Amino acid sequence: MRILLIGYGKMGHTIERLALAKGHEIVGALTVEDADQLATYTADQVDVAIEFTSPVAAVGNILTCFEKKIPVVVGTTGWLEHLSMVEEKCQQLQGTLFYASNFSVGVNLFFHFNEYVAQKMQHYPEYQVQVKEIHHVHKLDQPSGTAISIADGILKHYPQKQGWKNEVSQEQDVLSVVSKREGEVVGTHIVQYTSENDTFELHHIAHSREGFASGALLAAEWLPGRQGIYGMTDLLQL
Ligand SMILES: NC(=O)C1=CN([C@@H]2O[C@H](COP(=O)(O)OP(=O)(O)OC[C@H]3O[C@@H](n4cnc5c(N)ncnc54)[C@H](OP(=O)(O)O)[C@@H]3O)[C@@H](O)[C@H]2O)C=CC1
Ligand SMILES: O=C(O)C1=N[C@H](C(=O)O)C[C@H](O)C1
């Protein structure tokens, strides 16, 4: 497959290494300096683009891919306030987008178990639920996209919670999502239930970026030929 990497940082480099090992071709790898090159690529040259850039760059890149009819896999987080506009544009331009806040298979299983546990725990108000995430100090967005997905999964099953806040909140109708930035931590997510008597946790620790990269590649191999917006529940058996 001919892959265009939009963003050639930590994730871009990891995806390139895994893609070459699987026999794919990298037709380009764009950074801030050559961002304007994206508009020069056509669907004849690229089977799929993989976008891991920054919260401010992602939406523009997605729209350019729609205009160019290049299917795009997006891992960049921190842009979801624009999702409804992107959905409209996707329909209008007959675009193709695959988005996941986290491409690792383990985290997507975690999302599933998180909802199962929340469904049970909402009946036990003596347990206080909290989401925690720890990432490297270079991360631009807070809370992580994965933590937002986890919080949304809990809120679906907790009618007594009205929303989440990125702080330790004492408000009973608020789900606390707490962020920490530490060294080079790849990505750790915790859902904690605490009562006076005990604590239990769901804990996911990414040991490297390879899990994210291999999931993004799976999505890239699956996406060409499709139209519309997809996510990991379309790809994995959960
Ligand atoms: N969904 C998932 O599974 C995962 C998501 N992420 C998310 O992916 C994003 C990127 O992460 P990461 O690779 O660690 O970040 P890095 O900062 O290491 O890399 C970002 C890259 O994007 C480039 N870039 C920025 N703006 C543009 C633009 N307009 N056009 C082309 N390239 C651009 C940067 O260029 P330059 O080198 O010139 O600065 C850099 O090469 C983040 O939002 C992160 O949260 C990360 C891991 C997993
Ligand atoms: O910025 C990162 O590094 C990561 N970002 C994603 C997120 O915001 O959830 C996924 C992963 O945790 C790594």
TrEMBL record:
Keyword annotations from UniProtKB, A to Z: Amino-acid biosynthesis, Diaminopimelate biosynthesis, Lysine biosynthesis, NAD, NADP, Oxidoreductase
Residue ranges of every copy of the Dihydrodipicolinate reductase N-terminal domain listed in the record: 1-103
Catalytic activity: (S)-2,3,4,5-tetrahydrodipicolinate + NAD(+) + H2O = (2S,4S)-4-hydroxy-2,3,4,5-tetrahydrodipicolinate + NADH + H(+); (S)-2,3,4,5-tetrahydrodipicolinate + NADP(+) + H2O = (2S,4S)-4-hydroxy-2,3,4,5-tetrahydrodipicolinate + NADPH + H(+)
Residues annotated as domain Dihydrodipicolinate reductase C-terminal: 106-236
Ion transport recorded as keyword: no
Entries under Gene3D superfamilies matching the protein: Dihydrodipicolinate Reductase, domain 2, NAD(P)-binding Rossmann-like Domain
Highest taxon in the source lineage: Bacteria
Enzyme Commission code: 1.17.1.8
Stored InterPro entries: DapB_C, DapB_N, DHDPR_bac, NAD(P)-bd_dom_sf
Pfam families, per database record: DapB_C, DapB_N
Pathway annotation from the record: Amino-acid biosynthesis; L-lysine biosynthesis via DAP pathway; (S)-tetrahydrodipicolinate from L-aspartate: step 4/4
CDD domains recorded: DHDPR_N (cd02274)
GO molecular-function terms, A-Z: 4-hydroxy-tetrahydrodipicolinate reductase
PANTHER family: 4-HYDROXY-TETRAHYDRODIPICOLINATE REDUCTASE 1, CHLOROPLASTIC-RELATED (PTHR20836:SF0), DIHYDRODIPICOLINATE REDUCTASE (PTHR20836)
The family this protein is said to belong to: Belongs to the DapB family.
Record's protein name: 4-hydroxy-tetrahydrodipicolinate reductase
The species this protein was found in: Rufibacter sediminis
Gene coding for it: dapB
